[in-house]
């Protein structure tokens, strides 16, 4: 029997990437007359999260403000479990939707599972094959897949990963990545470099955008990355390096002493979403240990060197938009120099991670699931067919 009651769907975010990737879904749910939507923020990344909420016009209905209370993974996980339990008891949602692989996503999903509330997992099925890399994300997303009711896989490869783990095939819906939805929404507003970057770089020089902050990059890996950035700047006098430095003290204590003496390496404070996307669009090359950048850059045709030992986004490698180079100094310098020597790239190819319709597919699948209709989404409507 099809239920006539409107379902209550609680979406949960705690970090800047989660908010960016959930923005289109929150908008889609909020505009649908068939769903009552509630946005819950854990505040895992407080300052950066507030920037995204403001720029993307998102307003949390529930804000747990946890980051100032706890600072380590176990403390954060325990606090999210405790406070989300109270939220779930108060809201009584029909489904909790989490995104990706953060501690917020895992703990919120687990809290829902403990309460018998179905869980929808956005960006399900990404796998690096190394439980410690990225850490703790690889473990988090595998745990979520073990109890999720609906798995919103961004690509066919992600679907195959889930099927290889014996996840119910009927629960897997290939939607595309919601980050492409958000990027398409804001890309028309990007016409020039942000002021905070433009005032630092010399007009006419090529920009190399660098991000490096992941936990597995700390220590020797980050030291090698910094040395590579130094050598790239020294070897290419027509290049200006823009390096937004993460607020984490571990990162800052390594990056600033290693690079602050170079005129053409600009160590800037973290950019807000629009500033970062604008810089990414006009960059000649990106060096990153980020997962999201691998998904976003193909929209602009900007090549990416991935400074990690593994990646869960093989689609970018297959499409030729990214290259996995590890964290060895000479490997990074060699590949960066080779890519900087190639002719200007074209943005004509499609993004292998999405087409801007992921949120619509998720909404349709949610409504079909709630109404008891199978399949939750016809395969001909999957992304990347």
Automatic annotation (TrEMBL):
Keywords recorded for this protein, A-Z: Isomerase
GO terms assigned for molecular function: UDP-N-acetylglucosamine 2-epimerase activity
InterPro entries given in the database record: UDP_GlcNAc_Epimerase_2_dom, WecB-like
SUPFAM superfamilies: UDP-Glycosyltransferase/glycogen phosphorylase (SSF53756)
Top-level enzyme category: isomerase
Entry EC no(s): 5.1.3.14
Gene3D superfamilies on file: Glycogen Phosphorylase B
Residue ranges of domain UDP-N-acetylglucosamine 2-epimerase in the record: 31-366
Stored Pfam families: Epimerase_2
PANTHER family: UDP-N-ACETYLGLUCOSAMINE 2-EPIMERASE
Family statement: Belongs to the UDP-N-acetylglucosamine 2-epimerase family.
Protein name: UDP-N-acetylglucosamine 2-epimerase (non-hydrolyzing)
Annotated source species: Pseudodesulfovibrio senegalensis
